[in-house]
Amino acid sequence: MKILLVDDSAVLLKMLKKSIQRIAEDRVRIETCLSASEAEKILREEEYDLLVTDIVMPKKSGVELIRTIRKTDNNIKICVYSSLRDQETLDELDKLNISLLILKPGVVPEIAKKILDLVLIL
């Protein structure tokens, strides 16, 4: 299983990656990136089973990232992990066929478990 984590917070990415690895052990490969643009480049070069992305990021939002991905890939599972709660964005995410929405803040090990529930039988 391959997971791509996207967030503009390097600290959060590091904590989430460690927590997922602790639970999943060697059953997943996790890559991280700090921007939607970097994620798009990675996803053009390699297939992933799951994308976990924040919504509010500099330059390009997670919603824009998801829109771009959905133009070519309806199979990748997408988990949104964000503090954004406006109804317009939530409605758009619903149309973009996301698999899971997790609202920040949260306890990182619990979030990691929810994320892994999308791709692994724990």
UniProtKB/TrEMBL annotation:
Q: Establish whether keyword Membrane is in the entry.
A: no
Q: Name one Pfam family in it.
A: Response_reg
* Superkingdom of origin: Bacteria
Alphabetically sorted, this entry's keywords are:
Phosphoprotein
Record-listed 4-aspartylphosphate modification sites: 54
Q: Which InterPro entries match?
A: Bact_response_regulator, CheY-like_superfamily, Sig_transdc_resp-reg_receiver
List the GO biological process terms.
phosphorelay signal transduction system
- The answer to whether the entry has keyword Transferase is no
Q: Tell me which residues make up the Response regulatory domain.
A: 2-119
Q: Which PANTHER family is this protein grouped with?
A: RESPONSE REGULATORY DOMAIN-CONTAINING PROTEIN, STRESS RESPONSE REGULATOR PROTEIN 1
Recorded protein name is: Response regulatory domain-containing protein
Q: Can you name the source organism?
A: Halobacteriovorax marinus
